[in-house]
């Protein structure tokens, strides 16, 4: 088991990027729910309130109250998604985005190598156990034969 070398985790500084910038990019590119909620929920609430406030009473009575909430949410969610797409596009144009992608690729490779390392360790342990049991079985059979 000593001949299997454990992979080492990549460090952002080795790729010319800080940990703070890695968090920044991950927050944007991985659809950080906090940022989306912080922006999307106020937009959705304002849209629902605004539409229902502007809607004439005769039209408002035509719609069930459920639809007076759900229908205004559709453009609000589309607007929030458009803003998120714009944030992603802006992040991809930043100067250290290439370093971030190189670091992310190294992290993915590290995770794959770690899985392989664990599987090889497990297989090596199983082989050692099998050899030990087989030798014990062989010793028992030799003892019974005498």
Describe this entry's structure for a reader.
With about 150 residues, the chain is mainly alpha-helical. The protein has five helices and no strands. Helix 2 packs across helix 4.
Salient structural properties:
mainly alpha; elongated; 146 residues; 79% helix; 5 helices
Helix count?
5
Low-confidence runs:
none
Sheet/helix structural class: mainly alpha
Strand content: under 5%
Q: Report the count of strand segments.
A: 0
The dominant shape is elongated
Mean pLDDT: 86
C-alpha-based Rg, rounded: 29 Å
Measured between the Cα atoms of the first and last residue, the distance is: 35 Å
Estimated helix fraction: over 70%
Topology of this structure?
Layout: H1 19-29, H2 33-54, H3 57-62, H4 65-92, H5 97-145
Helix pairs in contact: 2-4
Summarize the structure in short.
The protein has five helices and no strands.
């Amino acid at each position: 088991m000593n001949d299997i070398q454990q992979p080492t985790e990549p460090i952002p500084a080795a790729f010319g990027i800080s940990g703070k910038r890695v968090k920044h990019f991950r927050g944007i590119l991985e659809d950080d729910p906090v940022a989306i909620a912080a922006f999307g929920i106020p937009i959705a609430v304002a849209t629902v309130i605004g539409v229902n406030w502007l809607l004439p009473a005769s039209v408002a009575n035509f719609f069930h109250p459920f639809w007076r909430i759900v229908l205004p949410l559709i453009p609000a969610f589309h607007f929030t998604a458009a803003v998120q797409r714009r944030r992603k596009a802006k992040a991809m144009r930043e100067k250290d985005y290439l370093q971030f992608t190189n670091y992310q690729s190294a992290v993915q490779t590290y995770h794959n190598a770690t899985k392989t390392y664990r599987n090889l360790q497990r297989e090596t342990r199983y082989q050692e156990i099998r050899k030990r049991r087989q030798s014990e079985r062989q010793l028992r059979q030799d003892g019974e034969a005498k």
